[in-house]
Amino acid sequence: LKSMYNHVEEVAISFAENGDADKVKDLQDDLTGILELEIKAKVAMDALAAIRMQNNPEELRPMFDTKLQEFKNKQPSVTQHPRHKTSREKFWELLHDGEAMPDQDDELIVHGGDVPDKCPLTMQPFKEPVSNDKEQGGCGHTYERSAIMDYIRNQSRRKRTVPCPVAGCSNHVTEQRLERNVDVEFSQQRRKKKKRGDADDAVDATQIE
Fold first, then answer.
1. Residue 113 pLDDT level (bands cut at 50, 70, 90)
2. What is the rounded distance in angstroms from the CA atom of residue 182 to the CA atom of residue 129?
3. Mean pLDDT of the residues in the chain
4. Residue 181 dihedral angles phi and psi, to the nearest 5°
């Protein structure tokens, strides 16, 4: 579901860059549907985990239904999902050129926090950013794919577990946990676009002088 979400989001971003708001809206509805499926799957898995020690077959179904409802009630709505918010902000910025969203008083932020722009291993701007996936127990730190793969290979020769290379992080990183970070990719694209725009403005100003 995560890969499906990322793919649909990429298509929606391409439409947003071309100013096609109607197609973005349709794909945004599809993204909401994917997140709803993901939430339902997580709730079901949590309910199953909660009853795994139950040995009485006759009690399994009632207990599962009870736990299912319990976890449903605790689960926030899809509109509160971090990815829903992040995608909505991306589309708005592309379609409205940085104008603040209607429900935001502050300057539009592309991501719900600071978006890294350089790999902690190479100290160079990202080309293919991947993250130590939090949903799989990772720390969420982002690295350049080739750099972190080399790091994992080298460290695994000497250690059973490979520590995250970010200073102060006590988590571990594995190849299986690495997930493509589309938020950092988007941020990099926006930075490049802004630099091109600033360069064009500088050229225009020179020509005017």
1. very low
2. 8
3. 82
4. -105, 95
